[in-house]
Amino acid sequence: MKSFREKVESAGTRLTKSPIEILQVNLGKLCNLTCAHCHVEAGPTKTKENMDRTTAEAVVTYMKNSGVKTLDLTGGAPEMNPNFRYLVTEARNFGVHVIDRCNLTVLFLPGQEDLGRFLANNKVEIVASLPCYLQENVDKQRGKGTFDESIRALQILNNLGYGKENSKLILNLVYNPVGPYLPSDQAELEADYKERLLEDWGIHFDRLYTITNMPITRYAKYLRAINQYETYQELLINSFNPATLDGLMCRNTLNVGWDGRLYDCDFNQMLGMQLRNGKPMTISDVYLWNLEGRAIEIANHCFGCTAGCGSSCQGALKVENEKAKR
Q: Has this prediction a pTM greater than 0.85?
């Protein structure tokens, strides 16, 4: 079986950095949920692995000096980090578009009662996790009661203007397969979501992103526990699609860990595949280093982003590429 590197070479492609447009910042592993598919292995007990103010200030300095267009905040639950609102406010002051990767249930935590209003006031794009429109499947993957809270949170966001027609407040949802298989067609699944959520709960949203579960960390342990790890890995390898390579998120994204260390993507961060220049590179010194043209760190887990229609933080790659050609 060919490695991912061999597959890329066979496709006549070399994966290198293009100009950085997206700064993706993982604020840490603290989260109010413990999801089975979470590649970050986030949870309520992960209190130490979280970004401090000094690192957050270095992120702001990079944004100011680099001219990045988008700040993509993730976690854990990024909103639980005390520097979350500081980063949002500073980014908006620079005219940087902000994305919050939200698990929805965080809106009901003590101290987060005004979170929805804060996001709306700063015109933050929300990318919200909702792995299914059925209660049973969501609670199975994310914990009992998660579905009901997610629906309530979406209704709150709709009332603030998110996801409504002609609104500038963007609300996108994320679908992750509940089992060890590839996502369904993104456009068809989006249509199903819109019909069911509107009919059952009166909920509106903009786009649905389908994201393939990555067989690393917690999800890899889950797959091994149900004796599906090798089968799932084989599925990803056999589904390799060279048409997805040009749209991979690692090309125009710089990922920052909670401690300021740099990576090509969030998956590489969880595997410790750091960007190095003799020593690990950090957000404090990266503006002195030209990343464009630099070879991207790859390994066999990258099959997860190139299987079928492909997978990125903005959903299916093949669909996006086809739209770009029209």
A: yes
